[in-house]
Design a protein that fits this description.
The chain is an alpha+beta fold and 246 residues long. It has nine helices and seven strands; from the N terminus they run αββαααβαβββααααβ. The longest helix has 19 residues.
Length: 246
């Protein structure tokens, strides 16, 4: 399958992949591989997905890729390899803060807080910036150098994607996404921002331990919901549904 976009030649090495296992805690059950000669971030072998090294060393991504991240990408119609590190940092930080506060957080909340924009320097990719007056996470780097060259692929299975249906993510890159609708500030959004801003909201505080702890909790909740949960769990659950009006 050919692509309408241009991609730099990957510079990722076998040592880089080994570093993901040893330094960034990727489980050996996740099958990582270097991209083949004909593979690009849009055109990969069947049964594989792509990612960038920076997603793990500077954005906090883990395996299995958290289902909430994949759900939001699927609803936007974007592939994992279409988003900039800047996009992923905001998404990870929002999901971590929301879970810490017991809030439900999805695409609606995400698009009320940020503007999703096409990256003019690298056509086909998308970045985000905070909407005016809705700045929640401090000091997130806006751009990264040579992140596209650090591309690799991984096998799609339970170890890498959990229970998520990978077919929901597009194989071909979208050139645009649907408009986000109204951006008016509602009481719900104002309250959500206030809650997310309290506590540790500087990007430097989102270390690997903090991120892994929260996403491990989310994975446990998802598994529990698949088997119906327990009466005790339901009795002690206090999740707040923050659904802003649009």
């Amino acid at each position: 399958m050919s692509s309408s976009f241009n991609f730099p030649r990957p510079t990722t090495t076998a040592d880089d992949l080994e570093d993901l296992y040893k330094t960034y805690g990727v489980d050996r059950a996740v099958a990582l591989d270097l991209a083949g000669v004909t593979e690009t971030p849009e055109t990969m072998r069947e049964g594989y997905c792509g990612a960038y090294f920076s997603f793990f060393h500077s954005c906090g991504l883990i395996f299995p890729v958290p289902e909430l991240i994949l759900e939001i990408l699927a609803e936007l119609g974007l592939s994992l390899t279409q988003i900039l590190p800047n996009f992923l940092r905001y998404l990870v930080a929002f999901l971590v803060r929301a879970r810490e506060e017991g809030l439900s957080f999805g695409l609606s909340e995400f698009r009320q807080l940020v503007l999703v924009k096409r990256n003019q320097q690298n056509p086909g990719t998308f970045l985000v910036s905070p909407r005016p007056g809705r700045h929640v996470i401090e000091d997130i780097p806006y751009r990264d150098e040579k992140w596209r060259e650090q591309f690799f692929v991984f096998k799609v299975d339970r170890a890498s994607m959990g229970e998520f249906d990978f077919s929901r993510l597009p194989r071909s890159w979208a050139e645009n996404i649907a408009p986000s609708g109204s951006s008016s500030m509602s009481d719900g959004i104002r309250g959500l921002i206030g809650i997310l801003q309290r506590g540790r909201s500087n990007w430097s505080s989102f270390d690997q331990t903090r991120i892994r702890t929260v996403f491990a909790m989310l994975e446990w909740i998802n598994r529990s919901s698949l088997v119906g949960g327990s009466d005790d769990e339901a009795e002690h659950s206090h999740e707040v549904i923050a659904t802003p009006s649009v």
